[in-house]
Amino acid sequence: FNTNSVIVRRKQFSEWVRFPEGRTNRSGDIYLWVLLVTKSKNFYWCSDVGSYTHKDVVGVSKTSVPEETIFIDMVEELRSELGDDELKLLIKYSNMLIKSALIEKKRMLKKRSCNIFKCFFFREEPIYSLKWLLIISLPRRVILTLDKIKGQVNLVIRAILSMKKA
């Protein structure tokens, strides 16, 4: 998720949005953007990739990890304001963010903030949730190995795609 610049009326921003101060060390900006989009009703979800970012960007903390509970809270706090289709998209997005937070915590030997069986939205996305529950339950060394393999495969794919473009 890349937080680009937007223009928002100050009055609306202050009425609608509160940064989740003290609730997470990282990813509060994602929570803030989703809240802003939901409250404004003038933004639209687009599944097209708008940019690629690298995890080694200056200014991004390498020692803190997102709290998976912030994404659970985000869904629960906005549930009543969303239609069925919007809620499904938000749950899908939240499950992806929760998965990323849990894997990052596993890599960094950090403790989970929630019971692993209550972290994902199982009822709404049972297959995705079960798949990632099983993967996250693997030993840390297995996850690190899988991550290396994924990185190498991505490099090969990028090289092939760049050769096709040339």
Description:
With 166 residues, the protein is mostly helical. 58% of the residues lie in helices and 0% in strands. It contains seven helices and no strands. It has helices spanning 10-16, 28-40, 68-78, 84-107, 116-119, 126-136, 140-165. Helix 2 packs parallel to helix 3, helix 3 (68-78) packs antiparallel against helix 4 and helix 4 (84-107) packs parallel to helix 6 (126-136). The longest helix is centred in the last third of the chain and has 26 residues, at 140-165. The radius of gyration is 18 Å and the shape is globular. It starts with 9 loop residues before the first helix and ends with a helix. The mean pLDDT is 81.
Task: Write a compact overview of the structure shown.
Helix content is 58%, strand content 0%. It is an all-alpha fold and 166 residues long.
Q: List segments where confidence is low: pLDDT < 50 over at least 5 consecutive residues.
A: none
Percent of residues in helices: 55-70%
**Share of β-strand residues:** under 5%
Structural class: mainly alpha
Number of strands: 0
What's the overall geometry?
globular
Helix count equals: 7
Radius of gyration: 18 Å
Order of helices and strands: HHHHHHH
Multimeric state of these chains?
single chain
Mean pLDDT: 81
Ends: how far apart?
A: 28 Å
Largest sheet features: none
